[in-house]
Every structure is written in C-alpha cells, then in structure tokens.
Amino acid sequence: MESVPELFGSMVFNDARMRERLPRETYEAIQKAIRSGERLPNETAAVCANAMKDWAIEKGATHFTHWFQPMTGITAEKHDSFIKPTEDGRVIMELSGKGLVQGEPDASSFPSGGLRATFEARGYTAWDPTSYAFIKENTLCIPTAFCAYGGEALDKKTPLLRSMQALNRQALRILRLFGDIQTVSVKPTVGPEQEYFLVDRALYEKRRDLRFTGRTLFGAKPPKGQELEDHYFGSIKPRVAAFMQELDTELWKLGVLDKTRHNEVAPSQHELAPIFSTVNIATDHNQLTMEMMQKVALRHGLVCLLHEKPFAGVNGSGKHNNWSLVTSGGVNLLEPGDTPYENAQFLLFLCAVLKAVDEYQDLLRISVATAGNDHRLGANEAPPAVVSVSLGEELTAILTAIEAEAPYDAHELEMIKVGVHVLPRFPKDTTDRNRTSPFAFTGNKFEFRMPGSSLSIAGVNTVLNTITAEALRTFADELENASDFTAALHALIRDTVRAHKRIIFNGNGYDAAWIAEAERRGLLNLPTTPDAMPYFLHAKNIALFTRHRVLSETEMRSRYEILMENYCKVIHIEALTMLDMVNKDVLPAASAYAGKLAADMDKKLAAVPDAACGYETERIRNLSALTDDAYAKAVLLQNAVSASRETQSVGDLAAFCRDTILPAMHALRIAVDEMETLTAKAYWPYPSYSELLFSEE
Ligand code: ADP
Ligand code: MG
C-alpha cells in the first residue's frame, strides 16, 4: 500500500500538480484569477484544461463532469466523456478550455423556487478555480457554481462565495484601522464534525421507512439504548473499523483532511472530523465526505444514515460547524494576541460575532431549519431551538468588566481602557465545558452546533459570514470616523457588550428554566421550520443580504419557496410511507398473529376443554383493540394528507404539515409501537430497534 503522504491528494489536481504540469505563465494566470476572482483568459483555460485532461487520463479517467451543489442540498454531476471523433472514424480525448470553465446542464429539473418562471430556464455552471478538480470513479470532477442565465444563483455555492467576499471586504477595513497594511485577504476557516449512524444493510433493506425517508417511522423502544453511555469513545467494532479505514483512504486520495474518528453517544453512532480549511473547500469536502460514507458503507454490508434523527428516543446526529477567521498572513483573528492592541482587535472581532448572532438569531435558526432537524433541536440532546452564545466564565468576566468599566482584576483598569492588556489564551477546556450551547466559543473559534447531520454547510456559513460582515461594517463605519481611535474603540466594545449581552448564556441549554429565561431576555424561540422560515423575508434580512450582494430579493424569495416546499414534501413522503407500511404490513401482521393465537386456543380447548386461556384471550383482546386504534389513526392520517391538498400557499401547507399531519403520524406511531411489543417476533414485519441499533458488529 502507498504511504499516506503518497496517497494524500493523489486524485486531486492540486497546487503541486498545477506547478508540475502547467507552463509557468498559465500557472501564474490561474493564481491571479484565483486571487482577483476574475475570469480566466481563454488561452489559459485551454492550456489548463488540456493538462488536467492528460493527468486525469493517466489516472484512468474517461469522463469529466461539472460538479455542483444545487438546492437539493446534495451534489449533482452529469458526465461527459473526453472523446471527440476524428475524420477517419477514430476518437481523440479532449477537454476544451470552454469545457473546463463553463457547462450547460439542463437547469429545468433542479429546484428553482419559481426563478424559472421569471427568468431564462437554462442554467450554466462555472468553474470555481479556488476548489481543486479531482477524480472520483474515473471521472474528472470540476467544482463549479450553478447559475441561471440571468445571473441568479441556483445553487448553494454561489452565495457562499459571495459571502466570503463580503466578509473579506469588511474585515480588511477593520484590520486597516489597526494599522495592518500587510494582510491582503481574510477568509473564514471551517472544520465540520460529521456524525452518522451505521446499520446492517440487510436489516435496512427490510424497512421501507429507512429506505424512503432515512429514518424509522415506527419502532418500539429497545430494552437497551444509550443509557449506559458505553458506546461513546468505546472500542470500534471490526466491521466498522474496516469501513473507517477504507473511508479514510478514499477521502485522503481526494485531499480531504480527514483526521479524527470515534464512536458517539448512541449505539451505532460515529463521528468523523477533518482538519479545518477555507470554508468553500470545507463545504466541498464535507459533501464528498457524506457521499463517500454512503458508498463505502455499502461495500462493508452497511448503510450509512445521515438523517438527523433516524431513531426516536436515541440521540440524533448533528454536524458541528467550527468557524473562525484567518488572515492571508495566517493569523487567526479569533485568537487572543500577544499585545494589548492585538487583544483589542480580538475583542472587536469577538464583539462583532456577538452582535451578529444577537441581531440575526432568526437567520441562524433558519440556516439549520429542515424537517429532519426539527426532530433534534430542542429535544434533550441537541442544542435548543433558541440561539445563544457561550463564551466561558473567563471571557464573560472580561466582557462584564469592560461593560461596567470596572477592573477585571485589581491591577488591570488601565489595561481594560485600551481594550485589555494581555488576555489569557483560553485553553479549550476552560471554554468548552458547556456542550449544550448552540454557539460556543472554544478558545480560538466558534462552534455552531445546531446544523443537522445531512445539511450542506454552505447555507450555515453563508449566514455566518454575512451577518459578521454586517457587524464589522457598522464597526468600521463608526471607527473610520472617530477622532480618537483608542477611545472610540473602547467605547464601541463596551457599548456592544451592553447592547448584546442578552445573547450570552454559559449555563445548561437543555434546562427548561433556560427557555423561560431566554423568553424574558427577548430571545427568539422558533421550534419548527414553519415557525422560523417566514423570518427569512423580513425587511431587515432582505436589507442584509442585498446590501452585501450575497442574495438578491428574488433569490431570497426563491430560496424561501424551495425550503418550505422541501419541508412539506419530506413530511408528505413520510406520511405516505407510514400509511403504506401500516396497511400492507402492520395491520395484516397483527391480525395474523391474533388469528394464530385464536387457532392455538381452539386447539388447546379441543385437547383440554377446561384449559385456562387467559394469556391468549388477553392478548387477542389487547391486539384487537390496538389494531382498531391503529386503523382509526391511519384513517385520520389519510384524511389529513387528503385535506392538505386544499391548502392555498406553501406557508399554509407547511403549517398544516406541522399542526395536523405530524401529530397524526405521531398518534399512529404510538399505536403501532405498542402493537410491536405484543406481537411475536416471527410475525412482526420489520427488524426491531434492538436489531438495528446493535447490528454493526
Ligand atoms: P470536539 O469534538 O471537542 O468539538 P474536535 O477536535 O473533534 O473537537 O473538532 C474540532 C474541529 O474544529 C476540527 O474539525 C478542527 O479542525 C476544527 N478547528 C480547529 N481550529 C479551527 C479554526 N481555527 N477554524 C475552524 N475550525 C477549526
Ligand atoms: Mg464538537
């Protein structure tokens, strides 16, 4: 086997490969285009395309594709082969410059939220040279953005790239105020920790709920779940270890900095974390990670579940988005520095994030709003649906002292005046004790813990970048006009803490008392997607996205439609799957079992006329009552699904799904799960929770 350094990035047309294979002028022209964001000149594109194709062919590739991230949240690819016919009936292998920089997939079958009605139906993909091309399954994948011909973004990548530009612009204004003339760019860095479940493939195949919806819609509570907490960091089972090993290899080949792996809290649950990278690359890599997890699992007779809540009563899966800001010189702006000035700068960036999170709680909640994640947020495992920031005791004490203009400790009044003398470095363990916070400062970065496991991190980071850019913009406006910079800086930090301290909460986010306290503080509590989504179109949010040119109002309206429609579709599919399972499998199974008990009883009485039949009688009575109940609940659910067709708008439909269909599904599930506990294993049509959760050995 190749060594890891040889393996790493072997399927990526990365910087080293570009240097090696491109003429110097071409390499430099590409670097320039990457830095400036300008379009690549045609000749450069042609030379680069040819070199990429030659390299790809050496690696066994026969096809290429523009790899993009439409609003479905998963990646899309349409493969074209390199072949080009010659006049004498043979073929040559070709990738033109145009083929590299632009593609025209048929846009009409991707969600556009009404954009297609108003604009040109066609869409095009454009190469994002900041993310390297790579080879996956004999296909050269070219990372691209996907837009309509009118320029409207049809994907998740374009707004992310725009938000990076907005953040860069505003962060540089701040750095210049601190006398930094060296830094040429500021970029967000992200390390997404990915949770997932593995279940045995043969068991998975037997459950239509898992196959069609990614989660179990039925399943009685198993005798053993996660109570003993014996799975967390436990030793990894051989089949899982083999899966993880192969996954690492596949991801390393693709240049993904896959670093840590361990078992999670729930049985069969695991986590993988990469080393952080620039956010657009981290986004691409997380998409590849999710795709590879699913593919590699199949090769080991396993299925990887990325759903936020595959099993009721067992922890769901999230994706912790660790986010920070780094300068072109490699300085982490969320790390306390070595001089008072650097520390004042650190505090200013920290305050920008506080202000941003407080003012745009709604957008952060919306950025993680999906039907699947609604099962997780607010349950006793994931952060609540209320957004708050935990800073740790030490940093909170420093901010409190600044706010009160009081010394943080007896000698430090003067130091505080200039924005704090030398701040302690905050070791991870002093800031990270609170695992219940949705948004935690962890020493040199923020960890946003609300995203669900299946979510593309593009949306979350588009919001984080944009709201931070906006806070920095207001800071820069104020400080650029100040006559006394130090005094203005001090006042700004103090006033920002005063205005936004309500968002700081270091306590237990799972505690019911916190929800009441959050309400007293005026923080938003938006438990479900239909509660949260309408905020997206509030004037302040439209002003935000349009001001920073991240999303136009039209694009926002289209995204609102897409997300709401997706919520409704997911719930419809779940409801229909439940009905199908109940009608075709569950009710017949329970009846068959009751019939078998009755037949047993007849036989018994024929042999012994006065035999006691308490067990059979009782079981048949209970099962019959439950079958009737489940049948009635199924009828109610069916009626609810039919009635949903009468709703007028997507908002009404989403509310109907939340208020009528989901409760009807819940009621049906209760009856069915109880039936499961009373039915013999041989008669029950599905693998149980115990089997599913302990199947990966
Ligand atoms: P935990 O599980 O305790 O939250 P991990 O070490 O598993 O911590 O994950 C931390 C994640 O944060 C990793 O993906 C890591 O690369 C990432 N990270 C570390 N520093 C930064 C940074 N400056 N910017 C963004 N992400 C970071
Ligand atoms: Mg974490």
Concise structural overview:
The protein is of the alpha+beta class. The protein is 51% helix and 12% strand.
The amount of helix comes to 40-55%
Number of helices: 26
DSSP summary, beta strand count: 18
**Percent range for β-strand residues:** 5-15%
Uncertain stretches: 410-421
Main sheet attributes: strand count, strand direction, barrel closure: 9 strands, mixed
Distance between the termini: 26 Å
Descriptive notes:
This protein is globular. By secondary structure, the protein is α+β, with helices and mostly antiparallel strands. Strands 10, 11, 12, 13, 14, 15, 16, 17 and 18 form a nine-stranded mixed sheet that branches. Strands 1, 2, 3, 6, 7, 8 and 9 form a seven-stranded mixed sheet that branches. It has a two-stranded antiparallel sheet with strand order 4-5. Mean pLDDT is about 90; it is low at about 410-420. It has 26 helices and 18 strands. Bound molecules: adenosine-5'-diphosphate and magnesium ion. Magnesium ion (MG) binds near residues 193, 320 and 447.
List keywords for this structure.
seven-stranded mixed beta sheet, nine-stranded mixed beta sheet, 697 residues, binds adenosine-5'-diphosphate, binds magnesium ion, alpha+beta, 26 helices, 18 strands
Topology (SSEs and partners):
Blueprint: H1 4-7, E1 12-13, H2 15-21, H3 24-36, H4 42-58, E2 63-67, E3 79-81, E4 83-85, E5 91-93, H5 97-101, E6 102-103, H6 115-118, E7 123-127, E8 133-136, E9 139-148, H7 157-177, E10 186-200, H8 201-205, H9 208-213, H10 238-253, E11 258-263, E12 269-274, E13 277-278, H11 279-299, E14 302-305, E15 319-327, H12 340-359, H13 361-367, H14 371-374, E16 389-390, H15 393-404, H16 413-417, H17 428-431, E17 439-441, E18 446-448, H18 457-480, H19 485-500, H20 512-520, H21 529-532, H22 539-547, H23 553-607, H24 614-644, H25 650-678, H26 689-693
Parallel strand pairs: 2-9, 16-17
Antiparallel strand pairs: 1-8, 2-3, 4-5, 6-7, 7-9, 8-9, 10-12, 10-13, 10-14, 10-15, 11-12, 15-18, 17-18
The chain binds adenosine-5'-diphosphate and magnesium ion.
The site of adenosine-5'-diphosphate has 17 residues, from strand 10, strand 12 and strand 15.
